[in-house]
Amino acid sequence: MKKQVKFMCTAFRDGFQSVYGARVFTKDFMPAVAAAREAGITHFEAGGGARFQALYFYSNDDAFAMMDEFRKVAGPDADLQTLSRGVNVVGLDSQPRDIIKLHAQMFKKHGMSTIRNFDALNDVNNLIDSGRAIHEAGLRHEVTVTMMSLPPKVTGAHDPDFYEKVLKSILDAGIPFESVCFKDASGTSTPHTVFETVKRARKLLGPDMNIVFHSHDTAGCCIAQYIAALDAGANQVDLSMQPVSGGTCQPDILTMWHALRGTDYDLGVDIHKIREAENVFMDCMKDYFMPPEAQKVNPEIPFFPLPGGALTANTQMLRDNNLMDKYPKIVEAMGDTVAKGGFGTSVTPVSQFYFQQAFNNVMFGPWKKIAEGYGKMVLGYFGKTPVAPDPEVVKAASEQMHLEPTTKKVVDINDEDPTKGVKAATKMLEDAKLPVTDENIFIAASCKEKGILYLTGKSKPNGIRKSDPKEEAAKKAGEYTVTVGGKAYGVKISDTQATVNGTAYPLSVKYGLDEAAIATQAPAPAQAVAPAQATAPAQVAAPASSGVATTVSAPMPGLILRLNVKVGDKVKKNQIIIIMEAMKMENEIYSPCDGTITKINVAQGQQMQSGDALLTIA
Fold first, then answer.
1. CA torsion through residues 244, 32, 139, 426, sign
2. Which residues, including other chains, have CB under 8 Å from residue 175's CB and lie 6 or more apart?
3. The 3-state secondary structure of 370-385, one letter per residue
4. CA distances (Å), 271 to each of 101, 240, 268, 534, in order?
5. What's residue 521's pLDDT?
6. Integer distance in angstroms from the first to the last C-alpha of the chain?
7. Cβ(222)–Cβ(250) under 8 Å?
8. Is the dihedral of CA 29, 440, 43, 187 positive or negative?
9. Distance (Å, rounded) from C-alpha 491 to C-alpha 507?
């Protein structure tokens, strides 16, 4: 008799994160959830991880409403699982105990049944409070050991001995759990390491414990990893569905089914119904942009272990900021940030810290600007790293951030921080005149200013790369409305002619500008009319100043997160005047001089490009 292999369908959480940077509208994929249910799938990854913040940051959806809808569509008996980052819960920053507890309570309230809970540093102290909160909320706790391979010639952790030690520490800590997961977000662990690790875990945990192995196919090893895990005693693997399978995602259900044919293992599915469900899912997602890097195996990944879920999230942000040309240099620099950062597992939030520091090393010079998350990590503010970080990097972080290294427990630090917790989040809501509910408190605590923008109705969908069928049809037909000097023209273009407002003209298009031809036909210059910018806020200006005006420009692409000044304010040189966000990092913009703010060109939530005028000081 064949051994049935359990699986969780990750398509609607990790699949979305690993392909679309988690930027998907709720209404678009629910028909696929229904189809998967009809195909017999009963275990879904339904939220958490990046699929909490991304709904408020990008799709302007409510994550709690999404979870409610998921439960309604999947049915009352489905096991709906979410992902939690230990003391970071569903954000990049860590939280105090009251928010960790509220996280579990809110996810239980909104229909979730299991939480997979991990710490990227494998610091068991970060799993104690989060694990207990999950258990006390009445949810199944799937405690997790995070895995990866270190870059070549780098040693010190991430081998079977290390993972066995972490698992023993979890057992010694008395953390309640119903399942154990070994999570390799970068897909770089060798099948040999997977086999030996799971074999030792089965010996420690006994024959009845559910053991899960999770990976991504980014490095091309995932099916081999999964079979090694099953041979060593794992009960369950994670699988996805087209179009978010393979490449940066988990293997497809169909792929795993095929890989197990002729073996002693069986997925226990009706493969024809699975194919029908995948067709529905592909139709649901047909208008979304598919990043080419999400669809392929990358043999370079072992040299810079970038997880599938972080790879496309970061390339999407680079596209947002017109910086995709920097990507090759950033990933090359990431190997150095991993080697010197203390060997935390490359999974969110640590993978983001590695990428952010690599980004800064490329943009500003090596170690000239320490990213906040990376700096706090090497200084101990996210817990104990598997090995000691590079002392020179620790020194640079301490000096730049004006922070001393610490060995205190993360939750103890956060409990003492007046800017964190239920009380601080409640004040944010009250200041914005918003209802103080448990859901709103958690949104404010985990999403900060962007959460408040959503709750006040000031945010709008952004960064969703989804085509409009009507626009695509018009492009295909060569039909455009062109506005020049305030006058609109209906233009239809074919290979040989352009029809403008119904009149056809011969058409020839060449690359480059033929200056001589243009000069002979140029009309007399008309008075220039500044183009309207529908999305830009009205400029706010103060009375003219007699001083010399200084324009402060955006040093790099990014989002206006906070304006610390208003027109008429007097400022001093080096005073923080604006906070911009780029690559999930806050960047402080300083006043270059003493003076008075005479004009503000931007508004909170506006996306800027490098060199754009922000404000004027005179």
1. positive
2. 124, 127, 128, 131, 132, 141, 143
3. CCHHHHHHHHCECECC
4. 40, 14, 9, 50
5. 66
6. 82
7. yes
8. positive
9. 12
pLDDT at 524: 56
> Is 535 a residue whose pLDDT tops 50?
no
| pLDDT tens by residue, 18-29 | 999 999 999 999
Task: Please confirm whether the linkage preceding 307 is cis (ω < 30° from 0).
Answer: no
Query: What is the pTM (predicted TM-score) of this model?
Result: 0.83
Alpha-carbon 3 to chain mean position: 36
CA-to-CA separations, 181 to 142, 194, 306, 539, in angstroms, rounded: 7, 12, 20, 53
Q: CA angle, corner 526, sides to 525 and 532, nearest 5?
A: 130
pLDDT at 155 (0 to 100): 83
Overall residue count recorded for the chain in this entry = 618
- Find out whether the peptide bond into 243 is cis, omega within 30 degrees of 0: yes
What contacts 141, CB < 8 A, 6 or more positions away? 114, 115, 117, 131, 134, 135, 175, 176, 177, 178, 179
**Angle at which helices 327-340 and 350-364 pack, to 10 degrees?**
120
Q: Taking each helix axis from N to C terminus, what angle separates 125-136 and 160-173, rounded to the nearest 10 degrees?
A: 50
Distance CA 468, CA 529 (A): 30
Among residues 312, 252, 306, 313, which one has the least CA distance to residue 277?
252
Rounded to whole angstroms, how far apart are CA atoms 111 and 527? 62
Q: Which two tokens stand for residue 400?
A: 């730049």
Weakest-pLDDT range from 112-121, 347-356, 450-459: 347-356
Under a CB-based contact definition with an 8 Å cutoff, are residues 100 and 130 in contact?
yes
